[in-house]
Amino acid sequence: MFSALINVGILIATNKTTRLIIRISINLRLKLITLYCFMFKGSIVALITPFKNDKLDEENYSKLIHHHIQSGTNGIVPAGTTGESPTLSHEEHRKVVEIAVKECKGKIPVIAGTGSNSTTEAIELSKHAEKSGANGLLIVTPYYNKPTQEGLYQHYKKINDSVGIPIIIYNIPSRSVIDMTVETMSKLFELKNIVGVKDATGDLGRADEQLKKMGNEFIQLTGEDNNALEFNKRGGRGCISVSANVAAKLCSEFQSASLAVNDSNLQARAKEINNLLSPLHKALFIESNPSPVKYAASLLKLSSPEVRLPLVQVMDKTKIAIKDALKVAKLL
After folding, report:
1. pLDDT tens per residue across span 266-303
2. What single-letter DSSP state applies at residue 110?
3. Architecture of domain 18-260
4. Active-site residue identified among 153, 156, 170, 295
5. Catalytic residue among 41, 198, 294, 319
6. Is the pTM of this model over 0.85?
7. Residue 146 is a catalytic residue
8. Which stretches does DSSP call E strand in the chain?
9. Active site (annotated) includes residue 170
């Protein structure tokens, strides 16, 4: 993609000044994408939102963030699906982003969930996150209204044109009903702020296709804990993780080891941790996320199991499976 841009730039340049500006712009984008590749990688937690009597528990939220900083987590995603964004008020949505930025203090990046099936609302949330100091935006494909691929492109382009920080596309067909094609994603990657994808398709072949189409500069993060090992082998840079909420240290160690593709010892350690965590990855999705992970967090004294309707707390048989999985991982 960049070589094509360079060739086009040289062809249309009519004088030395124009050529210089084009080259500076291309080099700057290359350098920024390289920076984001280092920034957005490893174990990035899709952070739960703790409630107390159906109210945002700000004190607990801050404690969770510090727990992750101390445990080696590489990034925080506030107000994502796992953070129950559909049932957060606009005030709460803004608040959790503000708290995350304040508590992280630049130690680890904050990638704010600002997606919506309303482009106007997504822009408003994205502008607020940028103003608050978020390092990036995680924007889900619009759900329910089922836009075409052209509609998807225009949705993301409008948001891209409204902000000045990197955007990660969140492609999750199981929840949004639509699947962004590799072609649409490639077209979006040409825009100034689109830098990567959280791929929750569950299709490892997509990692191969996206790598082939967009190259190493395009940041691929899996949204599936259970395929993270293989995903990283195919060019992935990490995981936006649910399991990291309750296994922060293990998930961080796993990601560091799995990304060391040329170190056989670390690759062996990654497989070992993956085997330990595999039952947990499965148990946390027996029922609708984040009910299972919130129950797991309550067992570890990290947070309340409370969720907001229409979600409910997990059934007794699910509780047993979660406890067993935590024991296998030596977390309980």
Report:
1. 999 999 999 999 999 999 999 999 999 999 999 999 99
2. B
3. Alpha-Beta Barrel (3.20)
4. 170
5. 198
6. yes
7. no
8. 42-46, 51-52, 55-56, 75-77, 111-113, 136-140, 167-171, 194-199, 219-222, 238-241
9. yes
